């Protein structure tokens, strides 16, 4: 699965002044830097780790662009017009990503495979089927219900009671996509500094002084795209984003016969549980990748890896004793209303909060934020430009409450399972 990113200007002294300094060199930061550099701006992007080392390469590569809150929930938080606009923008963001990959000729194993989402019981299937019908009418997305009797055409598992298919979702190799995006940014003139954490951002009149261990840079504008790796250099953002580990396991190579039986259409996969799994064939079609959320941030990978192994066997009993070749994680970032956001505070623009769907949202949001900095009114327009997400009470960077929240979700899943009509 691995594909290392291109060499960057790690540990080299940055320029003394630039037009725009970007904090974070994942999908969002690089997409923004590329847009700005091609518009003639001088850009320096700083990453505390190796660029792409976080969730931009350590994710499942599913191009979902999901919106977690329901239409009704978004309407309650904002208004109905905003709810419709955000839903429509999720479709636009996916189309933008697909066109970007094609037009820039990024070799990242992208395939528009479709996605199957499984229902726990027949009651949930009915709800999902109605939701698919409404989504098709509202946005013109090709999506349809799959009854229990037909689901073996999509998945070789008896765990679900039907589901829905969305044809506008596919998969890519996340490491290759980041490497391609990085190469484009470097070719456009973006100075990308890996292993160079930003330690302070201070406003001095009309400019900012961005401090790093390799030197201080004067910038006219600053864009923060740190998402699940936000630290103390952006305290305002950190109080509003909670990092959550997304752990992934990958099986050993499976025979073509097994892959044909378990994933006959090689689709991306999801399910209707709060702590549901996402899974897919690897880009080469020879293994199964499965991921889910972790409750803590400790270093021992054994417990969460074994939990995912049990989940894999629950879905596919014949894989009970399969060997695993890989286990890794990346931090996603959640906020209180579970929506991506672009906002400005004290002259600094923030583009983060992708809530586990950054493969689609991060390049889109980074590009919109860049157009905002350029003053491009129409191209910078987005329903995600709004007030900042609310701060999380008593939170200053240590997600001490996550184990309790994960246990709560697990209880909800058990209750939903008990109530489901199977």
Automatic annotation (TrEMBL):
Enzyme class: oxidoreductase
E.C. number: 1.-.-.-
Entry's Gene Ontology molecular function annotations: oxidoreductase activity
Keywords, sorted A to Z: Oxidoreductase
FAD dependent oxidoreductase domain mapped to chain residues: 19-371
Keyword Hydrolase: no
Domain of life: Bacteria
InterPro entries for the chain: FAD-dep_OxRdtase (IPR006076), FAD/NAD-bd_sf (IPR036188)
Annotated PANTHER family: FAD DEPENDENT OXIDOREDUCTASE DOMAIN-CONTAINING PROTEIN (PTHR13847:SF281), SARCOSINE DEHYDROGENASE-RELATED (PTHR13847)
Name by which UniProt lists this protein: NAD(P)/FAD-dependent oxidoreductase
Organism: Sulfitobacter porphyrae
